């Protein structure tokens, strides 16, 4: 026998086609330098449940560490700390280096709010892509697509790829707009973490 037909083993939900809030796992945490030489972390996610279970949200979230003056350093600390709090890392955990931070994010689970954003860059100018707007704690009620599909996408889902590597990075790493509280803040913190051996 070659295999058995299984309706649960298909390519369902390979592309997230709606904005909304999604329970996700961090499947890529890549440390690079921005064009200004600031360290930045690019994050990719995999949806954990619901209609788009197994689909990836790629090229939609970048965190930039800026410490060129005390105010920017304070905002960077708040942004980077906010993500760890939403993941459930316990208070008092010390992060020694940005390399440790990036490595420690791999495999962590949280909830993200994604919205459609129109790109201003290169060949993608004018196209819409999903961008992470907020990080939230895991939602015990599961992922919640909100029905908002890509503006201008055709009804048959042929509106192009979900995201592109070019010009699709979240701007909250620079402007400090991130860190708003998400839904269901009572979700258990630290699920899946070994508090005696945290990843940082």
Residue fraction in strands: 25-35%
Helix content: 10-25%
- Overall 3D geometry? globular
Q: List the secondary-structure elements in sequence, H or E.
A: EEEHHEEEH
Mean pLDDT: 80
Provide structural commentary:
- The protein is α+β, with helices and mostly antiparallel strands and 200 residues long.
- It has helices at 70-87, 98-105, 172-175; strands spanning 18-33, 39-47, 56-64, 109-118, 128-136, 144-149.
- A hairpin with a 5-residue loop joins strand 1 (18-33) and strand 2.
- Residues 155-196 have low confidence and may be disordered.
Write the layout of secondary structure elements.
Layout: E1 18-33, E2 39-47, E3 56-64, H1 70-87, H2 98-105, E4 109-118, E5 128-136, E6 144-149, H3 172-175
Antiparallel strand pairs: 1-2, 1-4, 1-6, 2-3, 4-5
Quick summary of this structure?
This protein has 200 residues and is of the alpha+beta class. It is 15% helix and 30% strand.
